[in-house]
Amino acid sequence: MAIPEYWLSYNNGAEKLRFPVPPPVVNVSSPFGNTDIDIVNGKEFTIIGDRGLKEFSFQSFLPRHYNSTYCDYVKIPDPYVFINWIERWRNSKRPLRFIVTGTNINHAVTVRDFNYDLEKAGEPGDIYFSIVLKEYEFLTLGKKVDVKKPNTPTKPTDRPPVVNKGNTASPSGTYIVKSGDSLTKIAFNVYKNANHWKDIHNANKKVIGNNPDELKIGMKLVLPK
Question: What is the 3-state secondary structure (H, E, C) of 106-120?
């Protein structure tokens, strides 16, 4: 029997993430909208309703390095990149798809809760998390209704708000490398975006060298704006 694979995908499968360490158990909640009514002589009657939306909850961790004893595949993503993707998908306010291969779990979902610990004692770089996903029902309208908005004159001086489409991070200064640090971890903690690790590496190649993984405790890194 094949080992189940746990996947989250976004934008009709254009972007996918596979959980590197399978959770020990996935809790599935499947409510039903039944209503109990007390009638004459203390008897109870049940009005059977419709099935509610399912919820899936589980816990696992994202290892910093591959380990054949618990990882499902070799080229595992960096934990901070994994976290950053899920946060970006959730912020888009669009449904994801949760799939567990070899099972009947294949549902559009929304992320209802996502908690994680950035570091656990004795396991630097590993991220432990818990997640709650809820089944998403696509709304189908029988008839399209056009709603006209009243015309509101705008003042000549009114201008649309300026939207900054660039990187929101603007820290500057220096950072001293500590035990368990990686460039993606530093980028996540400083810029709240693990993808900025390349900017930190490019600004500090004379100190780090060409290999971004060769960080040493005590290194003084420049944090670009």
Answer: EEEEEEEEEEEECCE
